[in-house]
Amino acid sequence: xxxxxxxxxxxxxxxxxxxxxxxxxxxxxxxxxxxxxxxxxxxxxxxxxxxxxxxxxxxxxxxxxxxxxxxxxxxxxxxxxxxxxxxxxxxxxxxxxxxxxxxxxxxxxxxxxxxxxxxxxxxxxxxxxxxxxxxxxxxxxxxxxxxxxxxxxxxxxxxxxxxxxxxxxxxxxxxxxxxxxxxxxxxxxxxxxxxxxxxxxxxxxxxxxxxxxxxxxxxxxxxxxxxxxxxxxxxxxxxxxxxxxxxxxxxxxxxxxxxxxxxxxx
Amino acid sequence: xxxxxxxxxxxxxxxxxxxxxxxxxxxxxxxxxxxxxxxxxxxxxxxxxxxxxxxxxxxxxxxxxxxxxxxxxxxxxxxxxxxxxxxxxxxxxxxxxxxxxxxxxxxxxxxxxxxxxxxxxxxxxxxxxxxxxxxxxxxxxxxxxxxxxxxxxxxxxxxxxxxxxxxxxxxxxxxxxxxxxxxxxxxxxxxxxxxxxxxxxxxxxxxxxxxxxxxxxxxxxxxxxxxxxxxxxxxxxxxxxxxxxxxxxxxxxxxxxxxxxxxxxxxxxxxxxxxxxxxxxxxxxxxxxxxxxxxxxxxxxxxxxxxxxxxxxxxxxxxxxxxxxxxxxxxxxxxxxxxxxxxxxxxxxxxxxxxxxxxxxxxxxxxxxxxxxxxxxxxxxxxxxxxxxxxxxxxxxxxxxxxxxxxxxxxxxxxxxxxxxxxxxxxxxxxxxxxxxxxxxxxxxxxxxxxxxxxxxxxxxxxxxxxxxxxxxxxxxxxxxxxxxxxxxxxxxxxxxxxxxxxxxxxxxxxxxxxxxxxxxxxxxxxxxxxxxxxxxxxxxxxxxxxxxxxxxxxxxxxxxxxxxxxxxxxxxxxxxxxxxxxxxxxxxxxxxxxxxxxxxxxxxxxxxxxxxxxxxxxxxxxxxxxxxxxxxxxxxxxx
Lengths: 266, 640
Ligand SMILES: Cc1cc2nc3c(=O)[nH]c(=O)nc-3n(C[C@H](O)[C@H](O)[C@H](O)COP(=O)(O)OP(=O)(O)OC[C@H]3O[C@@H](n4cnc5c(N)ncnc54)[C@H](O)[C@@H]3O)c2cc1C
Ligand code: FES
Prior knowledge:
The structure holds two protein chains of two kinds.
Chain A: E1 8-17, E2 26-36, H1 41-54, E3 77-78, E4 81-82, E5 104-108, E6 117-119, E7 122-123, H2 126-135, H3 155-165, H4 172-176, H5 183-194, H6 203-216, H7 227-231, H8 239-259
Parallel strand pairs in A: 1-5
Antiparallel strand pairs in A: 1-2, 3-4, 3-5, 6-7
Helix pairs in contact in A: 2-6, 3-5, 5-6, 5-8, 6-8
Chain B: H1 16-23, H2 29-32, E1 36-40, H3 44-56, E2 59-63, E3 81-82, H4 94-104, H5 111-130, E4 156-157, H6 163-180, E5 184-187, E6 190-198, E7 201-209, E8 215-219, E9 222-225, H7 246-253, E10 258-259, E11 264-270, E12 293-297, E13 314-315, H8 317-321, H9 331-343, E14 355-358, H10 360-366, H11 368-386, E15 395-404, E16 407-408, E17 421-423, H12 441-463, H13 474-493, H14 499-513, H15 520-540, H16 552-576, H17 600-603, E18 605-614, E19 617-626
Helix pairs in contact in B: 3-6, 3-12, 4-5, 5-12, 10-11, 14-15, 14-16, 15-16
FE2/S2 (inorganic) cluster binds next to loops of chain A.
């Protein structure tokens, strides 16, 4: 358990390489030598990439930014699991001490029809932004707000709203789902805003619009297998999906005629 | 010189902003849609500016490097956001927040800006709650507050350890609403590589589409830069990997003055470096110092396990040196003390470059459950990274580069020395002087974006009659050519060393000689070492691949080439500022008990630098903006 163990790993990597969305793509094999167990998974890829560059080869493209498990940029399917084997952990927070010397590690992009590959391990997740645009907001212009303490919010509701709002929008839920459904992502936002008094005026419209957009983007339907929540690095609960389904049902019953005429926004 | 006119409105500090809002010119509602505004950056400052400007009716084009605006670096802010709400009834006020910020910044910030910031702070919280930001609440359903370093009141609003994430998702949601309404066009995976000027005004940008490699032009009536801080010049910092200075730097090269570049914040509690492969450093929130005690062994080189070192053989140095603030001494002061202990040979852990942050006593006093409720996520993060359990043994921590107070110079209206170029958030230099207090960056970013720029942008547009320009204009073409030329140069060099090699080497020089403490000899060495490294870079860097697809090495090469110039300017600024203040500590200027010794007679000013070139030689010219303190009187900052 010592912080900086001296142990070094030699690993075989089978990394997915794909030049663009229309390229077929294939696994390529690389060696990662003398890997310290204190490294993060992405640092191990940095070392591999620097070796590739020095040897005149093209490095492997992957998305990353904060490397603290909060921005949602990093993705990767490691040995078949989105974000790798450790529960409640993004790839950037996965450390090499979880692997064994001599191991072969498979590294692939998140795979889903709605997440086309950009290059190598980088995918296009802009469908998530478009779902947000459809209704993932409260319509209030800057300057309109009353005093922040004018409306009390029961602590339990505020805490539950926060739990749902903790979603980092990484898309691991989609990659884990056999139907490539985005239900957990959408449900997290609908739950977050639906639990707060400020979110009530647009609650029906939000559920209808976000779900319609999710379907339009080509994400699959939810069959309640729970793989999404089990993979989620922020452990967003399956209950959010139940809440979303309820909101959707209520909204359809109450709002159907209007929903067909109103677009996003106002 | 007339050039640095801060445009501070007349009147008492309390009246300035109200009065200025009345005096500024307005654009009538029907005319706003005739103006196009380019906003670069989608962190708290950029996203709040884009949404608020669009709400007013302007057409906004928004740009970011990441694959979604929601991933901007602001997402990682942990601890909280300050506001002078005085909900806890503990004596806070706008004036006190103003006072604490001016003093915390060691009297190197502009009073008028800081007062406006404190004034606006309360509206930020109102607006964020209305947007659905799930701040922490008490059982009665009202908002909860906590305290942060450098303040004696509780004015920090928070959402567990994820305040930045929640605030940014709020601003992003507003921006997404404006995208749906057609008022914001959002361009992600775009990197601004040049500012385009027409008739002396900032009229557009040149950027690279990071997916296709295409070089694009975008024109508008004004440009807003909200591109964040430049801490990554040190290679290792708590900033996200994509944080960089390129957008600011390319504007600097076009004539925007760069202010106080050497003012860097080094945060005392970060997880120490463990090896050469290290790619970034992780912050352990300042809030931990509410319950953790910082110590080192009294004996030099004591290699015993911490649990075997009895209390009598431990030096709780912050409590010893600063009895009244103790473990909550401000960041600059706490960081320096950690460095002193390590330099004297008292450092701990395998590398000897760390001190302990110990929760043993707090766990004994409050129980493990209470500690885990407050800090559970941070303890888990620490264990994931180090493999050590902080409930059982103290955390090892060490200071790391965290924030940059310096940035592009702006006037009271947040406009740079280039007409039409406005700079918001961490990218400007405005409000934090020589040291930023915790939970004040989020406040400043949102104040700039939600409340300042929506007012001052109208004034700028109404005061200037700007001719229409399109991207066909020669200035755009020239800029595209120049950008392409530079990118080609990287790709054709085919040298031997990787971009990361150079970046690491630069970081090493910066940390050793332009870091936590500086002196004339080291700074002069740093300048010549950086110059040498820069010329090696331009001969020997290896950038693989091609232009026309996603090529991260090519992106990084451009950023590192700019850091290699900025680093030199930082050293020059630190060398020129012959005093110690806030985060800028010169060994030669200290009190007998090793505290920063300011020189208000000669250095009570903002140092604003202009970029000059002669052939391939670069140099800088210094201009000064004198600072006046009419409300908070110049005094030695003491936390003893
Ligand atoms: C780990 C950590 C914790 C922190 N915690 C706190 C806290 O608790 N409280 C607090 O007040 N402050 C905190 N801070 C500081 C605070 O987070 C930052 O100062 C603040 O978020 C900066 O916001 P910004 O909008 O100015 O820029 P950023 O959030 O850095 O955003 C920059 C934007 O500019 C874009 N960009 C940059 N260059 C280009 C380019 N060339 N072309 C196109 N786009 C570009 C990026 O894509 C991004 O969208 C913390 C900082 C760190 C590192
Ligand atoms: S890089 Fe930000 S979550 Fe992994």
